[in-house]
Structure formats: C-alpha cells, structure tokens
Amino acid sequence: VANVVVFGTGRVGKSALTVRFLTRRFIGEYGDIESIFSHNVIVDGRDITFNIWDSPETSLYEKRVQWADGFVLVYSICDRASFNAVTKLIQFIKDNLGMDKVPIVIVGNKKDLNHRRTILSEEGRLLAFTTACQFYEVTAAENYHSILMVFHRLIDRILASKTSIKRPAGIKGIVKSMSAVFTRK
Q: Is pLDDT of 44 > 90?
C-alpha cells in the first residue's frame, strides 16, 4: 500500500492528473472537492494499492503530510506563483516529517500550453536536483503514459525509502550474528 498526497495550488491540474492516472481519461473542469481514491496497479510485477488524497489547496496540510508515504507536487508551467508554492511545500513536508529524503515527485503540468509557459523546464529540473526530488513535465490533457510514469517512479521511491528505513536493523542483526560466530571457541 502506498499513500500518496497530490499537492499544489488551485487550477494547476491536480485532479486532472489524478483522474488521468486512475481512468486514463482527461476531464478538464473540477470543483474544489476533496477525494481519496484507491487504485490497484501492477508496478514491476508487484501488485500495489495506491491511496491518493486529492484535495483543495487550503486544508489540513499537517494531517495529510503525516498520512502520506509520498507526494506529487504539481505546478502549472504557465503560473509562476504555483511553482513558488511547490518550492515552499517541499520545505514544509521535509520540516514536518523531520527527514531530508522524502519520496517527492515534482510535476510541471500543462506542457500542451507551451506558448503560455513562464517556468522553464530547467527551473523545474534544478529545483528537483537541489531538493533531491524527481521531476517530470507532463500534460494531463494529452498524455496518459507520462502520468503513469510519474506514479510508477513515485512508487519506486516509496518502496526504496521503506526498505532503507528497515535496513539498519538488518545490518545490526548481521553484525551481531557475525560477532556471535567469531567470538565462539
């Protein structure tokens, strides 16, 4: 199970992105409706249940951050304020969780509106690089496969973070076992 929160300011395409992933369909208009979707997919041969919390921008940030295993942070490539909000969200998430490495994918949406672009792809890539996140530019309106890639790469990061959390105890166990073997006479 992977609990995913989709964050971003209003009208950046959070719901369109989520619904495109869940149904392969694009729906252009959404209201401010809070929804939690559950969806089963097979990623690299593993059956994964995604619980996706898609909600308006304003409420319950702390509660959602604590609930989530990973995050999709969406901005519109045509809206500078939405990009700046993503920058602040990354810091908020990392501060709230007390961790530096958090499974986060930054998504620049509305690539089909390139003629209205105000945020360069390089800015998104640089933000992702400097914050140890992944980055994709997509268009929920025109392409299902790029949306699928966003969620598949996020699940890879979530699974990697869950195994890295468990790993230290395993290493300590191995060290204890090795010590026990070599100290016997």
A: no
- Name the CATH code of domain 2-183 (choices 3.40.190.10, 3.40.50.970, 3.40.50.300, 3.40.640.10): 3.40.50.300
Write down the pTM of the prediction. Answer: 0.86
- 162 touches 99 (CB < 8 A): no
* Cα–Cα distance, 5 to 17 (Å, whole number): 12
d(CA 50, CA 53): 10
Could you give phi then psi for residue 86, rounded to 5 degrees? -60, -40
Q: Which helix (H) or strand (E) holds 84?
A: helix 80-97
Name the one residue in this structure whose structure tokens are 């989530």.
68
Q: What gap in Å lies between CA 29 and CA 73, rounded to an integer? A: 19
DSSP-derived pairing of the beta strands 46-54 and 35-43: antiparallel
**Nearest C-alpha neighbor of 55 from the set 35, 76, 31:** 35
Q: How many residues does the chain have?
A: 185
Report the alpha-carbon distance of residue 97 to residue 22 in Å, rounded.
27
**C-alpha closest to that of 146 among 12, 16, 21:** 21
Q: Residue 63: what pLDDT?
A: 84
Q: Count the Cβ atoms, other than its own, within 10 Å of residue 85.
A: 21
Model pLDDT for residues 128-170, shown as the tens digit of each residue: 999 999 999 999 999 999 999 999 999 999 999 888 765 444 4
